[in-house]
Amino acid sequence: MLIFDFTGLEKVIVAAWVIGGSMFSPWLRLKGGKGIGTSLGALFVLAPFPVLVSVVVFVVILFMFNYVSIASISSAIVFPIAIFVAESMRGIRHDTILLVFAILLACALVAMHRVNISKVANGTEHRFFLRKK
Q: What is the pTM of this model?
């Protein structure tokens, strides 16, 4: 996407295909990952500053709660907010296509973590750091 002169819509379409292919791989019978890592790479091209904000949120939440799933969900939710705030601070017109895509992607990423959400609620989710008792 950096080499070719893509429009905003074309960049979002490419990112959606990449992320969707990771989450619903046809070679794995439409099963794949939860999409966080692929989203990080694809979205860094589209909106680097909001991605960095999301990464900071991820790290802070990970250290606070010790669950990768909670940190992933939090960073996914923060991303569209960071896009809106970053564009507002810079005084530019909001990229509606990117903002709608970010909101839809955040909803999809949260939905992909629904099993993890129930595990956290039940206390069976694995912690990231092993803590000594």
A: 0.80
